[in-house]
Amino acid sequence: MTRDQVFISYSQQDQEFFEAFCKYLTPEVLSSSLQLWSDQQIQPSQNWHEEIQQALERTAVAVLLVSQDFLISNYICQYELPYLVKAREQNDIQLTCLYLRDSTVVLSNFDLVLDSGSRVAVNLTQYQGLNRPEIPVSAQPPADQDKMYAQAARDLHQMLNPPLVSRPLHGERYELTVQLERQGPSLLRIYVHRYSRLYERRDSWRWPRRPSSDDLFEIMFGAGETYERVFRLLFQDDPPRPIRHPVRVRIHTDDPELAALPWAQAVWNGYTLCEQGWTFELIREANLTATPNYPEITLRTPCPVLMITSPEAPNCDVHHRALEERLHRAWPVHHEPPFWARTWGELRSVWQRRRPGIVYY
User: Which DSSP category does 76 fall into?
Assistant: First the structure.
């Protein structure tokens, strides 16, 4: 069954809070591919339990409105929470909480058996919330409650509408270190993949007066003969088109002028490489004979992650999407979508609600 709904789980005792929050869940907040669902959609004569179970199976994102009444609800604890938390632990859905009133949520753990047979103990506070349990909505004056609902809606919008990449990162992503060194009127290029050098070449070279996006590609890979040989060796296929596969490029140079170039804007034959799944990193003061190959690390303890980027940064979403993939491998069970902050206002808002354990910028 297609997961195409945002499921709102709440206690009937919190009806007033539910209605106040739903005023902010406008179509502009929700993703165009998702529909909001709550028990308010159940029509007279319909089987109440069956409708909720069908809605759970179609859930892509769950929003839990947490209070003590929510935690002690027999129906929620027996039928809704086990399904939603298990689906979240198996990375089938996204899940977040809006804390309405003071509760014992920090003491309430759920013991689950995943489809893999693994047993996990889960506390709702380990998932990134729309606010903090120690600062619930009810603790605020009415005007500030509206602000909290509005901010929660903005954060939910961010969760439902992550930055898109023109080309999804899937399949193999190649690793390539490009070492650049100016030697008088020449430029030495050394290409390293994994544990061996692919190729190196020294060409006469003049610094472009105003390097364009096409110049950036040529600085890295030279003219047609050079780049074709590099990508033929890297991809092991022919013809060696640079956009055939996404590539993680590490620029290794100690030259300050080369280091200052906006490599993420590189273009080949009209294609912006970052839009084709490429990412660029800068390495300085290192003696690399090969691309570093770091061991895979798997973690079970949850850790909030904050990603900071400038709204003017070109194609930064591609680099962050690659990092999100790495985080997902590191936290296969307890990984939650990272926070994004593009402005000082967003950064302050995230920092006030929950202190991240990792900040990436």
Answer: I
In the numeric block, which tokens belong to residue 217? 């590609």
* Helix or strand run (H / E) with residue 353: helix 344-353
For residue 21, what are its two tokens?
């929050």
Residue 127, helix vs strand vs coil: coil
**Number of Cβ atoms within 10 Å of the Cβ of 156:** 23
- Asked if residue 291 is part of any domain, the answer here is no
pLDDT tens string 141-185: 988 999 999 999 988 887 777 654 444 445 567 889 999 999 888
Residues 6+ apart with CB under 8 A from 240: 227, 228, 229, 230, 231, 232, 234
Q: What gap in Å lies between CA 149 and CA 22, rounded to an integer?
A: 9
Same domain, residue pair 18 and 66 = yes
pLDDT digits (tens, 9 = 90+) for 200-212: 888 888 888 788 8
Q: Residue 126: pLDDT band by 50, 70, 90 thresholds?
A: confident
**CA neighbor of 178 nearest in space, from 169, 186, 170, 187:** 187
223 and 137 fall within a common domain? no
**Number of domains observed in the structure of the chain:** 3
Q: What is the DSSP annotation of 170-188?
A: -S--EEEEEEEEEETTEEE
Nearest Cα residue to 333 out of 291, 292, 303: 303
DSSP string spanning 103-118?
-SGGG-EEEEE-TTS-
pLDDT in tens, 73-102: 999 999 999 999 998 887 788 899 999 999
Q: How far apart are CA 244 and CA 158, in angstroms?
A: 31
CATH code, 32: 3.40.50.10140
Strand partners, 95: 62
Structure tokens, 197? 């050098």
50 in a structural domain: yes
Q: Are 122 and 37 part of one and the same domain?
A: yes
Q: Is 258 helix (H, G, I), strand (E, B) or coil?
A: helix
Across the range 34-47, mean pLDDT stands at 84
Tokens 């055939």 — which residue? Answer: 244
Residue 300 lies in a domain: no
